[in-house]
Design brief:
- The chain is α/β, with parallel strands linked by helices.
- It has one domain: Rossmann fold.
- Strands 1, 2, 3, 4, 5, 6, 7 and 8 form an 8-stranded mixed β-sheet that branches.
- The two termini are 26 Å apart.
């Protein structure tokens, strides 16, 4: 799994993934994010260039969380990120997109939707949205699960 966007709140995800036997890599454009790097490895760079950074690695799941409105701020930037992630996605890979509706005008997610296939997983209803938590979060957080490739 590749985790895009790294902060301290990702640390429990690494622990849960390790217990489940999931290998996690991470990428963030901020060099300070290395303090919260995934156990398998971490890349510092722009997600729109991830295919050049990870070389021969392919991922079954890409968790693209908290990036829309926090670096990927336009529909064209979202499409560039998707193009790069598609190159490193294993056949049948899933893309989990998490973002804060209200933080953006939603042009980014709307640009992605026609190029992806909506999915759900057993026991997980998607999309799912959580209300704001704490003082730092003003907007809700929403997750959607997709397969790479547009709906047919």
């Amino acid at each position: 799994m590749l985790l895009v966007g790294v902060q301290s709140y990702n640390l429990p995800l690494y622990e849960a993934s390790a217990r489940a036997g999931i290998t996690v890599w991470s990428i963030d454009y901020d060099p300070a994010s290395s303090a919260y790097a995934a156990p398998a490895g971490h890349f510092v760079g722009d997600i729109r260039e991830v295919d050049a950074l990870v070389k021969e690695l392919r991922f079954d799941v890409i968790l693209f969380n908290g990036v829309l409105g926090f670096g990927i701020n336009t529909a064209s930037a979202a499409l560039e990120a998707l193009a790069a992630m598609t190159k490193i996605a294993a056949p049948g890979a899933l893309l989990v997109v998490g973002w804060n509706p209200g933080r953006t005008d939603n042009a980014e997610i709307e640009a992605l939707r026609p190029r992806l296939t909506p999915m759900s997983l057993p026991g997980i209803l998607a999309p799912v949205e959580f209300g704001p938590r704490g003082r730092a979060q003003r907007d809700p957080h929403r997750y959607e699960i997709f397969a790479f490739g547009g709906a047919s």
